[in-house]
């Protein structure tokens, strides 16, 4: 194989991967519009005051990332009618797929840069031990926050450490620790992955504010219960924080600037939600969380059961005239009457096959059979089938047998696993 052939194969491989993934991502993005409308409507109406149920709604977005390979888009009349044209567009205009992926990469780079800047700032802050916990103290008047999924760091401004009493600081630390304990930092990361991959849906970026609001509300309620305090006292701490920070700097919301997190601009709404706090049973909250996880897992399992595998066997038989490079006999009932195959051999009924090619002038030595192979999705990624000439076979018990081997190559093996 020449260098140019290797280059061409590589280009074809990456183009195929781009088409394969973008077709799925666009389907997921379109489906996410429906899910977002459902979630947003329920959280604003029926579940408006149901803190934990409202938060659990967002788990419905987890299965969205797994719907791209569903058979619905090919075997259902409505799905095929709506999405077949999109598959054709991607196959015929590869640049659209690369454009989609470029936007994904730019989005990732933007979020990564903002987080890198924030981490750099935190790394330069002074470490302190407060009430048995290591925190990072900053002179900048920012609201307390936590960063880092795998190595969480709590950041607090010095002004709060100076102005607050021990009980109030314990409550603030408990709030940040609750974010960590409930896995909210991981949820934020997963949400960012979702909105990056499905950037075609702008409501996912807009929904970041509401998603964080609901997680913050859950954290507030859990903190109030764990601190064994009152909602009024907790709300007073929040208002005191805003007052002190605003007195230090009118730009106290710097944390929001760096992370894109704007819920602290809605202090009034947050205080109103805290004022509506009602005691709850921990077992109920845990039950809702477990139920949400099970429902999400069940939905993912259901979508996978109704989806094509990563690599699907392609049951096909095609006969080519290799002298002209054209298809001689297409797959169909007539050809299946004359030709069959298994893992090692192609079987041909001489008389039946001769009847199919009686009107053809092709020489026997140029008749080639292509059987089997695999595909990623219907019409995408077909390859790997066995190919052999008629003249290489031999007659056995009145049946013409042709031995064949499906070719294996590195890029093909990688493609099957993707």
Task: Describe, in plain words, how this protein is organized in 3D.
There is one protein chain. This protein folds into two domains: 3-305, no CATH class; 312-417, no CATH class. Helices cover 57% and strands 13% of the residues. It has helices at residues 3-44, 51-56, 72-75, 77-92, 94-123, 158-163, 166-181, 184-197, 202-227, 231-248, 254-259, 267-275, 282-305, 333-338, 350-356, 410-417; strands at residues 126-130, 133-138, 145-147, 153-157, 312-313, 317-321, 326-329, 339-341, 345-348, 367-371, 374-375, 386-389, 394-396, 399-403. The chain has a four-stranded mixed sheet, with helices on both faces. A four-stranded antiparallel sheet has the order 7-6-10-12, with no helix packed on it. A four-stranded antiparallel sheet has the order 8-9-14-13. Helix 1 packs across helix 5 (94-123) and helix 4 (77-92) crosses helix 5. The chain starts with a helix and ends with a helix. Mean pLDDT is 85; it is low at 251-264.
Helical percentage: 55-70%
Low-confidence stretches: 251-264
SS content category: alpha+beta
Q: Can you tell me the number of structural domains?
A: 2
How many strands in all? 14
Instruction: Please give the order of strands in the largest beta sheet.
Output: 1-2-4-3
Give structural attributes.
single chain, 418 residues, alpha+beta, four-stranded antiparallel beta sheet, elongated
């Amino acid at each position: 194989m020449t260098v140019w052939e290797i280059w061409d194969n590589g280009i074809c491989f990456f183009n195929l991967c781009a088409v394969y993934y973008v077709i799925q991502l666009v389907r997921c993005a379109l489906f996410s519009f429906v899910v977002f409308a459902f979630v947003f409507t329920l959280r604003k109406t029926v579940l408006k005051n149901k803190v934990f149920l409202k938060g659990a709604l967002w788990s419905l977005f987890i299965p969205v990332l797994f719907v791209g390979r569903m058979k619905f888009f090919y075997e259902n009349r409505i799905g095929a009618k709506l999405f077949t044209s999109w598959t054709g567009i991607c196959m015929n205009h590869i640049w659209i797929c690369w454009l989609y992926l470029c936007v994904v990469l730019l989005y990732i780079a933007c979020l990564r840069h903002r987080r890198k800047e924030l981490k750099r700032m935190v790394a330069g802050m002074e470490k302190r031990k407060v009430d048995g916990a290591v925190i990072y103290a900053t002179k900048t008047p920012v609201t307390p926050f936590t960063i880092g999924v795998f190595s969480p760091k709590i950041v607090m401004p010095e002004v709060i450490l100076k102005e607050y009493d021990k009980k109030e600081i314990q409550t603030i630390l408990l709030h940040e620790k609750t974010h960590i304990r409930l896995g909210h930092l991981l949820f934020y990361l997963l949400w960012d992955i979702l909105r990056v991959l499905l950037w075609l849906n702008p409501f996912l970026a807009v929904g970041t504010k509401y998603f964080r609001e609901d997680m913050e509300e859950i954290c507030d309620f859990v903190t109030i219960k764990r601190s064994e305090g009152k909602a009024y006292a907790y709300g007073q701490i929040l208002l005191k924080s805003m007052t002190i920070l605003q007195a230090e700097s009118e730009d106290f919301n710097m944390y929001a600037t760096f992370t894109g997190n704007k819920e602290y601009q809605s202090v009034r709404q947050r205080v109103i939600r805290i004022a509506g706090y009602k005691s709850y049973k921990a077992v109920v909250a845990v039950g809702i969380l477990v139920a949400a996880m099970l429902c999400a897992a069940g939905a993912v399992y259901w979508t996978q059961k109704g989806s094509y595998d990563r690599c699907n066997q392609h049951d096909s038989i095609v006969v080519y005239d290799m002298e002209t490079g054209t298809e001689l006999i297409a797959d169909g009932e007539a050809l299946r009457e004359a030709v069959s195959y298994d893992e090692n051999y192609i079987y041909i009924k001489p008389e039946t096959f001769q009847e199919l090619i009686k009107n053809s002038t092709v020489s026997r030595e140029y008749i080639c059979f292509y059987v089997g192979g695999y595909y990623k999705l219907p019409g995408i990624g077909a390859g790997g089938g066995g190919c052999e000439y008629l003249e290489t076979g031999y007659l056995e018990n009145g049946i013409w047998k042709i031995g064949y081997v499906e070719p294996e190559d590195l890029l093909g093996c990688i493609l099957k696993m993707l």
